[in-house]
Predict the structure.
Amino acid sequence: MRIVVTGRNGQVAHAIRSLTDESAEIISLARPTLDLAQPATILPALASAAPDVIINAAAYTAVDQAENESELAFAVNATGAKTIAEAAEHLGIPLVHLSTDYVFDGSLGRPYIEADPTSPLGVYGCSKEAGEVAIGRSGLNYVILRTAWVYSPTGRNFLSTMLRLANERPVVRVVADQFGAPTYAMDVALGAILVARRLVDDSDKAVRGIFHMTAAGQASWADFAEAIFAESAARNGPAARVERVSTDEYASPTRRPADARLDCSRFAAAFGWTLPHWRTHIAEAVEACLKLDTTKEDERMLS
Ligand SMILES: NC(=O)C1=CN([C@@H]2O[C@H](COP(=O)(O)OP(=O)(O)OC[C@H]3O[C@@H](n4cnc5c(N)ncnc54)[C@H](OP(=O)(O)O)[C@@H]3O)[C@@H](O)[C@H]2O)C=CC1
Ligand SMILES: Cc1cn([C@H]2C[C@H](O)[C@@H](COP(=O)(O)OP(=O)(O)O[C@H]3O[C@@H](C)C(=O)[C@@H](O)[C@H]3O)O2)c(=O)[nH]c1=O
Ligand SMILES: [Mg+2]
């Protein structure tokens, strides 16, 4: 099976690339060959790769910056996703697309199910919602996986930010009143591949549409930070004291959902997999992140 994944260095794209086995060939299509902001690149790139299925793991993900760059965010996350869907339809192949908990405003008071109405708070969420709508309107064979709070040893994410901040200061202020599920990029990759295979092999309607797919359990960003620092301290890495603050006390240009927990039971029923608890992979991710930093340090000393 030939699987195209869009993006190269993104957390999920990178994790998918590391998952090679004999039964699937992963083909990365990234800029400039495939640029979601340049719709004319999309069909030619996909047609020449001739995949059996596409995983769209590329997106505009800078949540704060999106507020000042809404045109680019929409070009990539809405028009780009729509054009990927049109190309997939044209080529007669299925699409696995990734979306986010930020399509919700987080005010519901219970974990969201797929049928709950969306109501994003910011430009990033609005642009991802528009991408979902465009894919949903197409006649395509698709799955949209909404995940959340993705972290990995590489790339820009909350875990690497926390370790960097702990190198600079003894105390880090972190919001304790926004809830979600920190989800390991490798688990998102495994889930996306599982779904991609099913879309190719199984025509059942029950494995089509929107699914929520996050780690099990729930955390606040402050809980997540404390777990990161505990694992880092255990490995003599940087660790700060977490000062738990409210959203009002933390200056940010963007509103974020207070409680965007996603109910993942539809995914579990359709695909037979419940992702591990959010704490499961933190030690592994911290360890890998610290090791990468040490390697970079060694390279600096040698150069
Ligand atoms: N990060 C998170 O916390 C969450 C992410 N998601 C969703 O999951 C998916 C994957 O996110 P994640 O891996 O964290 O993303 P990252 O921010 O780590 O990486 C973004 C990826 O998108 C690619 N990209 C950005 N702009 C373009 C463009 N114009 N054309 C082609 N490729 C582009 C980047 O390319 P390059 O490789 O060249 O740098 C990179 O591979 C996205 O759809 C995101 O919305 C959902 C919930 C949470
Ligand atoms: C850096 C930092 C952040 N925060 C807060 C801000 C925010 O509410 C929360 C997380 O910060 P981030 O900048 O990592 O958050 P953010 O970039 O909004 O993360 C989101 O990214 C997109 C792509 C998604 O799809 C979402 O699921 C989610 O993962 O923590 C602190 O309280 N203290 C800090 O020192
Ligand atoms: Mg961010």
In short: The chain has a mean pLDDT of 96.
